[in-house]
């Protein structure tokens, strides 16, 4: 279990770096476009598409470190007030919903892939398929599902088999 956690932590760190790079790309292209338009009276046509792709990469890759550290908005204000079996059931429901959301994100990408992989951005010199902007959704969904699975395993160990946690890891 420790190796599984280390792998997920590493993926979260890589996703945070990718998210920061996406922000840098967006800011750079927007500033570049402002300078080109206002000083040189020219424009770079792919700027909007590049910023759109970067925004989706930033948003979905940004979900990964947040979810890994428990930083996403949740219903903790309800769960924290519950006690005993009600608390455990609410925690389990929270984990199950997270697992289902992650799986749905991956399934949605797979379902739309045949359509978005055959369409290409018109402003790029090379053929860049639309799937490039949807791919981070699948990555984030897979991560959420794997992290929720880890949390459910830990929940089961906590609820059903409290002893020997270190030996099982």
Largest sheet geometry: none
How many distinct beta strands?
0
SS class = mainly alpha
Topology as H/E string? HHHHHH
* First-to-last CA distance: 4 Å
Q: Low-confidence parts, pLDDT < 50 over ≥5 residues?
A: 165-169
Basic shape: elongated
Radius of gyration: 21 Å
Polypeptide structure, described:
- The protein is mainly α and about 170 residues long.
- The chain is built from six helices and no strands.
- α1 (about 1-40) runs antiparallel to α2 and α2 runs parallel beside α5 (about 130-160).
- The protein is elongated and about 65 Å long.
- The N and C termini lie close together (about 5 Å).
Compact overview of the structure:
The protein has 169 residues and is mostly helical.
């Amino acid at each position: 279990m420790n190796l599984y956690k280390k792998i997920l932590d590493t993926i979260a760190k890589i996703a945070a770096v990718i998210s920061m790079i996406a922000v840098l790309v967006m800011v750079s292209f927007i500033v570049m476009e402002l300078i080109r338009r206002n000083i040189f009276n020219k424009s770079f046509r792919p700027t909007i598409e590049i910023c759109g792709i970067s925004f989706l990469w930033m948003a979905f890759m940004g979900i990964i470190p947040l979810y890994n550290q428990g930083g996403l908005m949740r219903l903790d204000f309800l769960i924290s007030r519950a006690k005993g079996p009600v608390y455990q059931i609410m925690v389990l429901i929270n984990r199950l919903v997270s697992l289902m959301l992650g799986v749905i994100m991956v399934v949605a990408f797979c379902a739309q892939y045949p359509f978005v992989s055959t369409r290409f951005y018109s402003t790029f010199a090379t053929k860049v398929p639309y799937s490039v902007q949807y791919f981070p959704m699948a990555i984030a969904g897979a991560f959420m599902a794997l992290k929720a699975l880890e949390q459910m395993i830990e929940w089961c160990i906590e609820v059903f088999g409290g002893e020997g946690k270190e030996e099982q890891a």
